[in-house]
Design a protein that fits this description.
Length: 385
């Protein structure tokens, strides 16, 4: 159990958490209004299968955006409660990615209006409300477009604000982490690597899950004839990322090396998918013509995240091979003795200390053998002289 001083949030921390929650609530309300107008507009038309797929994809993108807002709350709470500077930086970057996403979402709506609805049969009969299909589309466009611009403006302004408060928080966190890991420079470097890897795994969870969700209307739009790919990504992705988190939080090097190899194979899939999505067919129907920008955005970010995860997982694995352990010996940042020590497994700590001692003992023995060999050679040369 952490002591009261450790868990006490600073004023900046409270303001940051409140701001992130308020942004999520306000933007979610605006997104729900956009969804309401979207559904109402689509209900006036009889869409073909392709139009239904575009409409479903559009709704899925709204849902992903709302999930991203609440995922930011999770990142903010976790980073502030655990004094995690790395995760705080990732929160700022994630918010900037949300801004890019909001811009692409605006483009996706235009596709629905220009292609999905214009090729559909107008079935509304009350001429007093909506005399023609063009009038209905223009009416709902005038309702949705201002809301979408407001959303982009809020996310853009909040990105600047979040960067400023995060900078101030990072100074606070830096001192708390220094008190825990300042004794050994190797430990501090290993802690930074582990923190980066943990943050990458959390962000991986969101982007892999969001990509899999986008494949739900794949049969209607024409990506694939089955949902097997979607199910495999959900199941395999979840299991792999759970293994990754477990291996890092418990510093299990053999589980981590399995995760690294699985990530390499998953990287092959995502690179192949990124190429496939952006290869326009020479003839026939292009199934990705309406969703190429969104899929490219998620595939590109996910591919970059997986590459970075592999790199940092390999660096953490190297540290474990060298018997450099952080969480096993010191626990989380900000733990300063007392009851907190009970939260760390004594058996694991003792085991890690034994491994470190044996490693140092082996190094000392090797150095002693080298010194003995050098001394013997010197003595033999002296005797020859």
């Amino acid at each position: 159990m952490a002591n009261a001083e450790t868990n006490k949030l600073s004023i900046t921390g409270k303001i940051t958490l409140t701001s992130v929650v308020l942004q999520a609530i306000v933007v979610t309300v605006l997104e729900c209004l956009v969804i309401y107008y979207h559904v109402t507009c689509v209900s006036l038309f009889k869409l073909n299968e392709q139009g239904q797929g575009i409409s479903e994809a559009d709704l899925i993108y709204h849902a992903i955006f709302i999930l991203a807002l609440f995922f930011q709350i999770v990142l903010a709470v976790d980073s502030i409660m655990n004094n995690n500077t790395i995760q705080l930086i990732s929160l700022v970057i994630f918010n900037l990615l949300s801004l890019v996403y909001a811009g692409i979402q605006l483009y996706q709506h235009r596709i629905l209006e220009d292609i999905g609805l214009n090729n559909a049969e107008f079935k509304f009969s009350d001429v007093d409300d909506y005399p023609t299909a063009a009038y209905a589309i223009e009416y709902f466009r005038s309702k949705m477009r201002p809301l979408e611009y407001v959303i982009i403006g809020i996310v853009a302004g909040f990105s600047v604000y979040l960067a400023l408060v995060s900078f101030k928080l990072s100074i606070e966190f830096g001192w708390k982490n220094y008190r825990t890991y300042s004794a050994d420079l190797r430990i501090r470097k290993a802690y930074i690597l582990l923190s980066i890897l943990q943050t990458l795994i959390k962000v991986d969870v969101f982007f892999v899950g969001a990509y899999a969700i986008q494949l739900i209307p794949s049969q209607k739009i024409g990506y694939s004839s089955s949902i097997a790919e979607t199910v495999l990504i959900f199941v395999c992705g979840t299991l792999l990322l759970l293994m990754a988190w477990f291996s890092v939080s418990h510093e299990l090097k053999f589980v981590l090396i399995i995760v690294i190899n699985c990530l390499v194979f998953s990287l092959i899939y995502f690179v192949w998918k990124l190429i496939k999505v952006n290869m326009k067919p020479k003839e026939g129907v292009d199934p990705y013509v309406f969703t190429r920008k969104f899929l490219t955005f998620f595939l590109s970010v996910t591919t970059l995240l997986i590459i970075t995860t592999i790199i940092y997982a390999s660096l953490c694995f190297r540290n474990m091979i060298r018997n450099i352990y952080v969480f096993t010996l010191f626990g989380a940042a900000g733990m300063e003795g007392g009851e907190e020590e009970e939260d760390i497994s004594n058996d694991r700590r003792q085991s890690a200390l034994v491994r470190i001692f044996e490693s140092k003992k082996d190094s000392a023995n090797r150095q002693s053998m080298i010194n003995t060999h050098i001394r013997d050679r010197r003595e033999s040369r002296l005797s020859l002289d």
